[in-house]
Amino acid sequence: MRVRIALAEKGIEYESRGENVMNYSDLLLKMNPVKKQIPVLIHKSKPICESLIIVEYIDEVWKPKSPFLPCDPYQRSQARFWADFVEKKVYSLGRKMWDSTGEAQEAAKKELISCFKLLEEELGEKPYFGGESFGLVDLALIPSYCWSLWFEDCGINMAGEFPKIFAWAERCMDRESVAKSVPDRHRVYAFLVELRKKLSAIR
Q1: Facing residues of 46 across strands?
Q2: What is the pLDDT of residue 203?
């Protein structure tokens, strides 16, 4: 999702190739032999792997239009810090909360709530994490919006507990690049519930 949003923000035309995550193509395995996973951007016959790295690559190569990182070195470092925080904490805890039950799920939920509190404070009254412009941290976090109904199902009231983040998410979803790239959260919720049932049945 991040890569699609970044390409759309830059107005870059591209060819997208789907992958069966249970049986990756020879091309994918050739382009990413180390981690053997998506996404992979192939530009000038060379592969770039990992979504946040790809986003920064896109920003560097197509720099003039809609920059994702600020010019100031300190602000740039802060954007990278929070994007890394989102990647390593929010997504990993979200997956852990989905894949666990009981005390383990409750512990993951508690930690995820702490993460959202920090992000709510960092966002403050700004329209986007970087200020007036949609940037790297926004790109990193907005795909999690499609999980928001699952978060609520687990007892995290996003709109009530984190109104600034919820308003930010809706603001992001108003952007054409995001709306076309982030799947409908109701469909994602139904998929997650069904998948969880199937996995529970075989465990």
Answers
A1: 43
A2: 62
